[in-house]
Amino acid sequence: MNANDDLKALIRTIPDFPKPGIQFRDITTLLLDPSGVARTVERMVTATRGPVDLVAGIEARGFLFAAALAVPLNAGVLLIRKDGKLPGTTIAEDYALEYGQDRIAIHEDALVPGARVLLVDDLIATGGTARAAVRLIRKAGGLVEQAQFLVDLPDLGGADALRGDEIAVDALVSFPGH
């Protein structure tokens, strides 16, 4: 038995969603369980190294974890949104998708240079969005050295790609395959 098997058991797998051959890891079942949510947050807080000034959450499920972690870490919450969703002046970063490109953004004044930032999201797959978030935070002058995820899909290589960007990566559970 692994340390986080209790959390893994709360995540349901939906086969062939959104297309045939994909095993969708649905965290909504974990989010419905108050004890599961509490244990997830507690374990992510425990895995955090050093003090952080901001917890950056990637739209949209990353917002849930960023807000929950920010309270016990005594940190602010940095929202990383799809481009065009934030009012005011923003800075943005492009990243590749399977078929095309997308863009994420933060407010231009969202962080002060030197701010220590923890990146969080629900799941790491190929790492495209997370790597773009790291570039964006660094472009804004933030120091990001660690990222945390509830779920890792290691066969897709995203966590390893982030490690190549000098990011310490933690995930509570992993699932083989896609």
UniProtKB/TrEMBL annotation:
- Molecular function per GO: adenine binding; adenine phosphoribosyltransferase activity; AMP binding
One of this protein's GO BP terms?
purine ribonucleoside salvage
Record's catalysed reaction(s): AMP + diphosphate = 5-phospho-alpha-D-ribose 1-diphosphate + adenine
Output the CDD domains linked to this UniProt entry. PRTases_typeI
Say where the protein is mainly found. cytoplasm
Q: Which InterPro entries match?
A: Ade_phspho_trans, PRTase-like, PRTase_dom, UPRTase/APRTase
Q: What is its EC number?
A: 2.4.2.7
- One GO term of the cellular component aspect? cytoplasm
* Transmembrane helix as UniProt keyword: no
Query: Mind telling me which SUPFAM superfamilies this protein's record contains?
Result: PRTase-like (SSF53271)
Pathway(s) the chain acts in? Purine metabolism; AMP biosynthesis via salvage pathway; AMP from adenine: step 1/1
Domain called Phosphoribosyltransferase: residue spans: 50-142
Q: What UniProt keywords are attached to this protein's entry?
A: Cytoplasm, Glycosyltransferase, Purine salvage, Transferase
Location(s) in or outside the cell: Cytoplasm
Family listed: Belongs to the purine/pyrimidine phosphoribosyltransferase family.
Q: How does it assemble?
A: Homodimer.
Report the function annotation for this chain.
Catalyzes a salvage reaction resulting in the formation of AMP, that is energically less costly than de novo synthesis.
UniProt xrefs under NCBIfam families: apt, PRK02304.1-3, PRK02304.1-5
Q: Which PANTHER family match?
A: ADENINE PHOSPHORIBOSYLTRANSFERASE
Q: Can you say what this protein is called?
A: Adenine phosphoribosyltransferase
Q: Which organism is it from?
A: Sphingomonas paucimobilis NBRC 13935
- Species lineage, top-down? Bacteria, Pseudomonadati, Pseudomonadota, Alphaproteobacteria, Sphingomonadales
